[in-house]
Design goal:
binds zinc ion, 3 helices, HIT family, subunit A, single chain, five-stranded antiparallel beta sheet, 5 strands, binds adenosine monophosphate, alpha+beta
Length: about 140
């Protein structure tokens, strides 16, 4: 397991920094976000340190997704939000502030106005979309 001694999430894994832990298994840890965007906002991390989705390998990322689903079901059942977002950030331009990979579980209330951006509202140029699809597929 890779540990970065300066990383706050590695310190939470090690138990040297406190957290409201929700679930722990061999490869992952789930805990409450200390600055919640909405009630029940929590985070799921791999125990091994890597900064982002590009640096991660399949096994810890798969483990994070499995724990995310498990915790998401529990959040849904416990808090009964109107909806829920799962998201994670890669790099400062995407809003990443902690450089240990983490998935956010963000419970939503109808009309709460969080994560504004109006995505999915404006039809895109199909030629541009197809061009982007081709460029991405060429790398898969
Ligand atoms: P991001 O901006 O996607 O990198 O998310 C980092 C998240 O970690 C933010 O939502 C912070 O509120 C949260 N956070 C930072 N420090 C702690 C901590 N010690 N315990 C729990 N959550 C934290
Ligand atoms: Zn770390």
């Amino acid at each position: 397991m890779i540990v970065d001694p300066d990383c706050i999430f590695c310190k939470i894994v090690a138990g040297t920094l406190p957290a409201f832990k929700l679930h722990e298994d061999e490869h992952t840890l789930a805990f409450m976000d200390i600055n919640p965007i909405s009630p029940g906002h929590c985070l799921i991390i791999p125990k091994t340190h890597f900064a982002n989705v590009f640096d991660g390998t399949d096994a810890p990322l798969a483990a994070v997704m499995a724990t995310t689903r498990r915790v998401a079901v529990a959040v849904r059942d416990a808090l009964q939000p109107d909806g829920m977002n799962l998201f994670q950030a890669n790099g400062p331009a995407a809003g990443q502030t902690v450089y240990h990979f983490h998935m956010h579980i963000l419970p939503r209330t109808a009309g709460d106005g969080l994560l504004r951006g109006g995505h999915g509202m404006q039809a895109g140029d199909k030629a541009v979309i197809a061009g982007h699809a081709d460029r991405i597929k060429a790398r898969l």
